[in-house]
From TrEMBL:
Family assignment from sequence similarity: Belongs to the nitroreductase family.
GO MF entry, a single one: oxidoreductase activity
Domain Nitroreductase span(s) in chain numbering: 15-68
Keyword Acyltransferase belongs to the record: no
Gene3D superfamilies documented for this protein: NADH Oxidase
SUPFAM superfamilies, per database record: FMN-dependent nitroreductase-like
Identification of the protein by name: Nitroreductase
Cofactor(s) the protein needs: FMN
The species this protein was found in: Selenomonas ruminantium
Pfam families according to UniProt: Nitroreductase (PF00881)
Keywords associated with the record: Flavoprotein, FMN, Oxidoreductase
CDD domains: nitroreductase
Length: 130
């Protein structure tokens, strides 16, 4: 299906290996690794170069649980994560903010894989705490 040249490409291998992880080990993710993941996320392209995306890193257990309650189904694994990175965008700054946030989220997932950190995208647009 793929040429040997493609299979030897590090980016191809990274994308091929990446999986959504919904069970976490309890192992701590260092601040340095989180910073590196965010540096990579900041390299994500955005429409018109506006970069309307912002990131909020959450380590506080109660806050992570409160974020998880914003989604009735699908956020079950979130409270067991050591860290959550919330991806937000300024809707007034760019009409393509959803796409920009999605691309930045994808960069986060690939960066997490590169650093051996399990990650899962949990979509919560237009949600309120239950």
């Amino acid at each position: 299906m793929f040429s040997n040249e493609t299979q030897e490409n590090p980016l191809f291998e990274l994308a091929r290996q990446r999986r959504s992880v919904r069970r976490y080990t309890g192992e701590k993710v260092s601040d340095d690794v989180v910073r590196e993941i965010l540096k990579i996320a900041l390299l994500a392209p955005s429409s018109w170069g506006r970069h309307p995306v912002e990131f909020v890193v959450i380590r506080d257990r109660d806050t992570i649980e409160a974020v998880a309650r914003c989604k009735r189904m699908g956020a079950g694994p979130l409270p067991t994560a050591d860290v959550a990175i919330v991806v937000m965008a300024d809707t007034a700054d760019c009409e393509l903010w959803i796409e920009d946030a999605a691309v930045a989220s994808t960069y986060i997932l690939l960066a997490a894989e590169q650093f051996g950190v399990g990650a899962c995208w949990i979509h919560m647009r237009n949600r309120q705490s239950q």
